[in-house]
Amino acid sequence: MLFDIIGCAMADGGQAAATRGGNVFTSLFPILFFLVVIYLLMIRPQQKKAKQHQAMISELKKGDKVITNSGIIGVVSKIISDHEVMVEIADKVFVKFAKSSIANRTNDSGYSTSKKQQETEPTNAKENISATSTPTISAKKKTTTTATKKTGRK
What value does the mean pLDDT take over residues 18-40? Predict the structure, then answer.
């Protein structure tokens, strides 16, 4: 039965597709559009993130505070090779990690910072105050008056 259907389609010589409006571009357009959307929304951002991570790993140096993929926070004490680092996780406690297992470089407060954030951070306290100050909203102070009863005797 299946071979009969295929045989009939082959016997038409593709004329059935042409009579149904079988323009190749219009039939492939939804598939191509879907692939482009997948590339733009999923693949390209992942590649960009991987490049940033690779750049961060290559810029690691002694004294950088890092967070590993397992959540261990420590300070890079030695670069062993292109693929390994020695991280001090407590006083005189050193652990060897693969560079690829370093998730982020952090600042002193433990929050991750990118190179762009480090370059734009203010350096003195006055700049820090002006950079983080927000306009204040003043609320009108409600005044309430209480009526007092006067009792007077005549």
Answer: 83
